[in-house]
Amino acid sequence: MGFFRRFFSTESGPSERQIQRALKQVTQMHGEAATRVGAMERLASWRTPEAAAALLRRFTVRTPQASMDLEEKQYAVRLLSEMGMTALEPIYFFLKTEPDVTFPIQALKNILTPEEFSRTLSEILAGLSGEYSRWPEARAVMIAHLPDEAYPGVYDIVSRFLEDEDDDVCIAAIDYLARNGDEAVRERLIQLFLDAENRPRVRGRILDHLCEREWPVKGYRKRMEEAISLPFYLTSKGIVRRKPAE
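RE: above sequence
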């Protein structure tokens, strides 16, 4: 609540009562769409950080009609993007504290240059990697949105999430590194595979990438042979293959 109090203390712009009324309308998932959209547009027109913070709350609720919910959230992205730099700090705060970050990330990408976007997302991830988070899904989504062009600058940060206890976060890091990595990543993923005896999803994703990249398991062949099971197998050259479905 300190975040909101700090912004609401401003003497200019809409009153706290106006913001709270619009916020209530924006988050009424069983209310009229026109009421929600009108409140969203009102918040965007005020062009203040506290208004942007309230507009971001639209991403915390889902309306019963999925198609309408999607359209409204896409419209909220557009409104936030048009608010520009005013919306940045509220978006940063949302990304650090909320689970549903896909749409705010889109707004952030629209506001910033590609270089600024990559740097900002990696800085947020760096902060999250060293602390407990109630929302592991947010970390996974942010990793997935890191541009490939940001590698190898984000290699160290993404690598930290290979140790994450949440499978989705770990897999997001695996996907990003395997897509962009080299020999060092190959060895890191093989070692992770061997250590992930009780994480079948993690093991399966690593094997998928070893197949796709045709990375050999040299240096680890004996241990890999003991750990790999069908439908995967090793060729005579130490390449992981998947048997076709019968």
